[in-house]
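Archive transcription. Copying these from loose printouts into the bound notebook so they stop getting lost. Printout 1 of 2:
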Amino acid sequence: MGGMARTTLGRHCPVERMDEQMTDQAAYIPPKVWTWAPGDGGAFANINRPIAGPTHEKELPVGRHPLQLYSLATPNGVKVTVMLEELLAAGHHGAEYDAWLIKINEGDQFGSGFVKVNPNSKIPALMDRSEAVPVRVFESGAILLYLAEKFGAFLPKNHAARTECLSWLFWQMGAAPYLGGGFGHFYAYAPTKIEYAINRFAMEVKRQLDVLDRRLGETQYLAGGEYTIADMAVWAWYGALVKGKVYGAGEFLAVDGYKNVVRWTDEIAERPAVKRGRIVNRTFGDASEQLHERHEASDFETKTQDKLQAAR
């Protein structure tokens, strides 16, 4: 399993010769000083920019629960809603939350209120209003760790197991940009298909899948025998990948060959809390799997898009 036995990526490109595989486009010579060309950047050109800060004034809504989540059901957003639903399923009633939809394609993440919670203008972002002074938490891995420590759950107490869990959590944080911003961008979203770029990142994603497959051939979960925030973080990205739910690249990457990853993915997907968490703030796919906002546990039964559409 993994890429060791395979010698090709892309259509006919040997891995060993990837440096020689360039497109027919004229070679790009970087200028001495880079300048931004608005509109250049593929599917997300309308929201990409080289500066930070808000673009408009807009305060964030606040619900009645202690935890206020501002998010969208991308893999990074799913990590946190799965964690919150797992906490509630485990009996941590203080984990009740309001999940507000942030439409990143429309630039909601650049509103002044959102930037106050996350100066990096990325989802998800969390405000914990159960504290005397509200606490902001941004970056999905930081949110998972914050919640795990706050509630004493899904993070092993044994020092060695805790360290293993955090190692895999931070592995995901470092690895996923190669999957999303690298492979996903050039394979699915870039304005032109660049063979070298797709091959370069496909090779890295397959290497990462092999890393996971080898680990999951040794243990049930990433940190060992215990389901943790590391599994939630990695599952949201790589579980979706091997089930063909991101980029439509399952066949291209031959994901069925990573048997241990598939086993682990399917096992986690069957958890009731995961089934709930993955549809929160979801605005795409089957209407029965879209819960644009979540404010009460009963919303899963009454507020999914299929129910709302039927009531109109």
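Printout 2 of 2:
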Amino acid sequence: MKTSFLGRNLIIRAEGFRADAYLCSAGVPTIGFGSIRYQDRDPVRLGDTISREDAEQLLSHYIATQIDPMVPRLITRPLTQPQYDAFASFLYNFGFEKTRGYSLTQLINDGPEGNSLDDLKAWETKLIEKWPVYRMAGGKALLGLFRRRVAELLTFLHLPSDVAWTLPHMGVDLVALVANLRAGKPTVSEPKLAPPFIPPMPVEAPPAPEPIVVLEVPPAAQPQEISMSAPEAKPALKSKTIWGVLILVMAPFVAQIGDALQVAGATAPSAGDAVAGIVSTAMTFTGAILAVIGRMASSQPLK
């Protein structure tokens, strides 16, 4: 038995065509339809390019020399053509050494425990649980590898594999998917996921109180105390009123003395009389000035 057109297309669809060499998910330089070596066993190097026609020839060469001879060495029980094609795609992806150590290879070899329908269903359930496990690359589960595993699984179970390439996530119930395909029902349902986690809103700290502005109110003017006691009496000699009255009283006497001196000078003219006249005149003016000052002083309030 050899890989059929179905198995070849399964590999082509899973790998996809790349004309320029690239690093696969495992970090290995790859080209064409997932080839890591050329026909002469030289490894692919980054910077290499290939045409689609040459890539298809490289794929055919690899299947003929590395896949078909290895399947009988790994699988010891009879396989149908779809089962062979599905396992050939799995082997193409992982290589001989890894595939030989995987428990899936042993599960396929073991087959059903008996010949009853229940035994066949139990074996298929184990395959459904085991096959999608091999979806890891670089320590991460990849949706592309999950789809490929499901396509291989459906092919192995003689079911159409096109639905596998449209799976939106890795949470699909594959047991229900297989049952729906066989019953002709819708194949994909949304996974039973927990409601999305919505982080709680952070507790906002209460706003800081606005600073209280204290208006400085000037102290109320204290009413001046009204003293009911009599003002402090000043000595009589310090009172302006007393002095004003005295000057006012003395002014006429000074003026009279001046007049008397003028009369005396007029009746007895001499050198001494001349002096007496001058003095009398000064006394008269002094009396007048004292009179004015006395009136002004007497008009001041008593302090």
